[in-house]
């Protein structure tokens, strides 16, 4: 009778004679299960770790790239501060401010070299104020605001010299901001200047941001429409809407507070009574209201 491993073994194991090698030494033979005659198989080798390692390296690389791109460069405009500045200055134009800041944030994130804006809106909605606030950015931005015929209405030779002067103030890799305000009678000249500055900025590796402010009438007619189709076809539209009565009142108070004057409600009401409204909107936004205010109250320029 064969020996048993114990009452609970459930199977009888047999030791198979080990074969001898060429030197006469026995080589351990595999152990077989007596009940089934099956041989034990060795465990499979663990899978190669190389694919998992490569995946980990790739994920780490992508994460590092994302973190580097998310860090604001010292050459970038602080979009959080810009949004706060523009929101405080522009009454009732939060949607326009949000659109402008969002486009700028995406441009800086992607490393874009040029960003163009066309701010459109009725008279008195804050287009000039927008250009003034952008000109005052400071920091890493070389900014210049040009107004109407006094600075834009020149011959092409003068505009070429102006473009060179603008580029001389900008550093490679940093923003040059060019704001053109009140281009009503100088659309072709404004278009030529934008093209000249754009070409010079690209050659000098200067990042260019442009803002052109206009009412619908500024770009009307054959010359204006053609200029809009060509020069402004890639520009992001920033639309400023008409102002309601309460928003004009807020505009008056902010204007006076910036000059150290606190307006009483009677003064505000008197100004609003002198301002024409078309339905619920002021016919000329804040512009005419501010003119009326300054005829009633002696306000110093701030």
Q: How are the SSEs placed, and which strands pair?
A:
Elements lengths: L12 E2 L17 E2 L16 H21 L8 H11 L4 H17 L3 E7 L6 H9 L6 E6 H4 L4 H13 L6 E7 L5 H17 L3 E8 L6 H11 L4 E4 L5 H13 L7 H10 L2 E2 L2 E2 L2 H12 L6
Parallel strand pairs: 3-6, 3-7, 4-5, 5-6
Antiparallel strand pairs: 1-2, 8-9
Would you mind describing this structure in some detail?
The protein is globular and about 60 Å long. About 45% of the residues lie in helices and about 15% in strands. The strands form 3 sheets. The protein has a 5-stranded parallel β-sheet with strand order 4-5-6-3-7, sandwiched between helices. Strands 1-2 form a two-stranded antiparallel sheet. It has a two-stranded antiparallel sheet with strand order 8-9. Residues about 1-15 and about 65-70 have low confidence and may be disordered. Helix 2 (about 80-90) runs antiparallel to helix 3 and helix 9 (about 245-255) crosses helix 11 (about 285-295). The longest helix has 21 residues, at about 50-70. The protein is α/β, with parallel strands linked by helices and about 300 residues long.
Brief digest:
By secondary structure, the protein is of the alpha/beta class.
CATH homologous superfamily designation of the largest domain:
P-loop containing nucleotide triphosphate hydrolases
Average pLDDT works out at: 79
What spatial order of strands do you see in the largest sheet?
4-5-6-3-7
Q: Given this structure, which CATH class of the largest domain is correct?
A: Alpha Beta
Largest sheet: 5 strands, parallel
| CATH architecture term of the largest domain | 3-Layer(aba) Sandwich
The class by helix and strand makeup works out as alpha/beta
């Amino acid at each position: 009778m064969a020996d048993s491993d114990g009452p609970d073994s459930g199977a009888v194991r047999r030791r198979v004679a080990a074969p001898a090698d060429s030197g006469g030494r026995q080589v351990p033979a595999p152990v077989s299960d007596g009940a089934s005659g099956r041989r034990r198989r060795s465990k499979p080798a663990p899978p190669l770790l190389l694919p998992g390692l490569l995946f980990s390296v790739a994920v780490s690389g992508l994460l590092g790239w994302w973190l580097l791109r998310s860090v604001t460069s010292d050459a970038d405009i602080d979009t959080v501060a810009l949004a706060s500045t523009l929101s405080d200055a522009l009454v009732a134009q939060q949607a326009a401010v949000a659109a402008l800041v969002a486009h700028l944030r995406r441009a800086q994130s992607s490393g874009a070299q040029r960003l163009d804006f066309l701010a459109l809106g009725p008279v008195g909605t804050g287009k000039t104020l927008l250009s003034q606030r952008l000109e005052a950015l400071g920091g890493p931005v070389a900014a210049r605001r040009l107004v109407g015929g006094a600075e834009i209405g020149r011959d092409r030779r003068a505009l070429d010299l102006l473009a060179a002067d603008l580029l001389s103030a900008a550093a490679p890799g940093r923003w040059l901001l060019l704001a053109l305000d009140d281009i009503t009678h100088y659309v072709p000249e404004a278009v030529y200047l934008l093209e000249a500055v754009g070409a010079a900025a690209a050659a000098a590796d200067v990042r260019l941001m442009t803002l052109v402010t206009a009412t619908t009438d500024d770009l009307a007619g054959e010359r204006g429409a053609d200029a809009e189709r060509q020069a402004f076809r890639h520009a992001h539209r920033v639309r400023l809407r008409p102002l309601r009565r309460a928003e004009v009142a807020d505009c008056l108070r902010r204007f006076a507070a910036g000059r150290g004057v606190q307006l009483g409600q009677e003064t505000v009401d008197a100004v609003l009574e002198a301002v024409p409204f078309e339905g619920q909107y002021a016919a000329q936004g804040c512009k005419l209201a501010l003119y009326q205010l300054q005829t009633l109250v002696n306000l110093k320029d701030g």
